[in-house]
Amino acid sequence: MKRKMKISCIMNVAVFLLVIVAFVMGFFKIQFITDNEARPGVDMFKFFTVQSNILAGIACAVLAVYEILYSHGRINAIPEWVYLFKYVSTIGVTLTMLTVVCFLGFIAPGGYFSLFINSNLFFHFVIPMITLISFVLFEHTEELKFFETTTGLFHSFFYGIFYMVNAYSHMEGGAIPAEHNWYGFAYPNVLFSVIMCVVMLAVTYGISVAIWALNRKVNIIKED
After folding, report:
1. pLDDT of res. 142
2. What angle separates helix 3-27 from helix 48-71, to the nearest 10 degrees?
């Protein structure tokens, strides 16, 4: 196995295992720092954070399997859809990390770093960083075409619909309860919420293009 692919495979396996660890910690409320705001169980699945991290874990596991098969001569090439799957999942966790770092951390009731403890340390930072670094630096591919950058919008777009429908369907007296507006993206003023959605999609697409471009340009290890 070539050096770059070996590093990629190790990082992909690490992400898969870390997603399992973080999910178990979150689901069963296993904490190394007390956090009374944590909500365990199936309630986790409503968060884009959890969805994007689980997607990344699956994508990394799939890519790792194909990398092992390729290195042992079982297949002649890694299919494009495998890289596309990893690419889309990388966009999702990068969006998660940047949203927390640049926005949610500043409005978190428990303070900025309250979003980087227990399972969220993995979900909000460790897993996104490993996923991003592995794809950009060690999984260089020219299989992905520029028009495929739009695939990075799908999860965010449909999640946004789910989020807003859930928020506005629970609006009472002109206010949206916090438990149905967990990211604070929905506002009684519908126009403002629409603008927020457009901004988030624009940011997501910007991330999508940036990751695609970096993957095409960056190649830190030259193979013999």
Report:
1. 87
2. 150
